[in-house]
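A quick aside before the break. I want you to see a complete sequence-to-structure record at least once, exactly as it would be stored in a machine-readable document. Don't worry about memorizing anything.
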Amino acid sequence: MPASRPNVLLIHSDQHRYDCVGAHGHPMLMTPNLDRLAAEGADFSHAFCPSPICSPERASLLTGQWPVQHGLLFTEIAEAYRPMRSDLPTFSALLREAGYYLGYVGKWHVDEVLTPQDYGFHDYVPEREYALWRSRQGLPPLPNRNDWFGETDAGITPGQSRLAWGASETLRLLRRTANERQPFFIRWDPSEPHLPNRVPEPFAGLYPPGSIAPWPSFGDSLSRKPAIQRRQLANWGIENWSWEDWAPIVSRYLGEISLLDSQIGRLLAALDELGLANDTLVIYSTDHGDMCGAHGMMDKHYVMYDDVVRVPLIMRWKGVIPPGQRPDAFVSSAIDLASTFCEVAGLAAPASFKGESLLPLATGQRRRNGRQDIYASYHGNQFGLYSQRMVRNQRWKYIWNPTAEDELYDLSADPAELRNRVADISCSRELARLRSRMVAWLEHSRDPLLNEWTRRQLLGPAERTVRPRRDLRLRSEPVTLRR
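That is the input. The structure line, written in tokens, reads:
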């Protein structure tokens, strides 16, 4: 029988596209260990990040709050950076108080001064230690000849990669705590597959560039879309790139995902070897996706395409989560995971947490309150401040760009999000409905972007929305009154 309070192994990568998992239908990518996790547990098909940028998402994972609530909206290189609020409960501090051992390996990127140990983790192995380890092994530094566009790390073997080092450090914590009586929460946050992809052979050459087909959105003219998207091509110097230019970058990105998968396999094998597999909830997810040539674009900024907001989220808890679960309900990955960690530890989530535990969905039950749509926000970063808010249901996605053209995509007819339908009169009724939903979310989350001027943008001068009484759950349509 599984433990009533399981161990938790969270593998939380950086910049992994939802469609870049073998089990999610990629035509050539090999991820046998992620596929195994998906087959043995729950694979969420509609998980979305609260913000497609590292620091806000990671703060949401700790606090269970939307970025406008915890206050960390950008990374440290943005012009208006400010740290996360210090007065908020975090799942990690709660688990420590409940008797869990907490270990953290890898990328942090929540605070420039405070570390995971300031938030309840007993041990923290920062990713910067890999460079020291590499030097002690007599290995050359990470190559940087091709800047952010990546290259083959010819000086090492896969076992000497940063991914292998991180998995080894995670294994060390697993082995050290395997025989302890207290449950553990161990978290590995590799920076990969975030660009630049510096990949050793044979993974660097696993997917020949000539064999990789363009993304369905490649070749997007960006017509009738916000001008900042075309500006981003110029920011990266890629406005004239063909698929032949992109294919080597995509090749290394896919190769790095397969290398990551191989290291996940080491951790799963260790759980079996140590007799921990039945008593450990294993979760794989990521902070956000990556454009990686989709719509011709690099990285993840100033857009809210599914390439960057939709994320893989896989959970396995043997004996509790039946194999082969495929929940299709909307999930806000970071926010819901914070509540999930509390439930598995036998704790009530704090009132400040805005998510819902994923265990009911993972075990084939109905969600307690449910979501009919999903939301995300973006606030800008190194190229300047820029506000965006997104609401998406199964068919439609609406992106509010207060200082540019709005975006509306019919995902059933246009899954690649090529045709902006916001000015299409035949879509006006759906647009009005989504704008009303947007206002409801902004009100619930007390988003400061909603004010008397922006409310008129969304609802028009002759409408106002009754403020819902309950906190952010968005279980019902807001009521609209006409003057």
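Two observations worth writing down. DSSP finds 13 helices and 18 strands in the chain. The first strand starts at residue 7 and ends at 13. We'll return to this after the break.
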